[in-house]
Amino acid sequence: MAKTDRINQQILQELSRDGRISNLELAERVGLSPSACLRRVQELERTGVITGYKAVLDREAMGVGFVTYIGVGLGEHTKEAQEAFERAMQAAPEVVECHNITGTIEYLLRVECADLPSYKRFHTDILGTSPYVTAITTYVVMGSPKDLRA
After folding, report:
1. What is the pTM of this model?
2. What is the DSSP string of the chain?
3. pLDDT by residue (tens digit) across 39-85?
């Protein structure tokens, strides 16, 4: 595990904002020499603190105009039911996040579709055909004033 001192925290914060920042610019922002900064970044990568870099995408430019969070309840709480549901969600391109959670439901999904008719197809053809799904609650995203996901 890499040290999580103040400078490493600054490095992580800057890389979270801009994963394409040059090492020279990053070093200037955190107050290190370029070689010391590069060593720290490489150590954060080597130890698994930094697991990768992603592009931030404009969903609307990609044709995604309908985003929902969906609470899903399963009728069975067996390992088989959970694994079957998770496999189905892995195979569904509309599902961009699938979280097994605690509470009154088992899963929280983030689903991105082009529009309402394409969401209805997902709702009917994917969720509606799962033998384990007994409850579906959809929350339509109307805006995202803060979204730090890549």
Report:
1. 0.81
2. -----HHHHHHHHHHHH-TT--HHHHHHHHT--HHHHHHHHHHHHHTTSS--------TTTTT--EEEEEEEEES--SHHHHHHHHHHHHH-TTEEEEEE--SSSSEEEEEEESSHHHHHHHIIIIITT-TTEEEEEEEE----S-----
3. 999 999 999 999 999 888 888 899 999 999 999 999 999 999 999 99
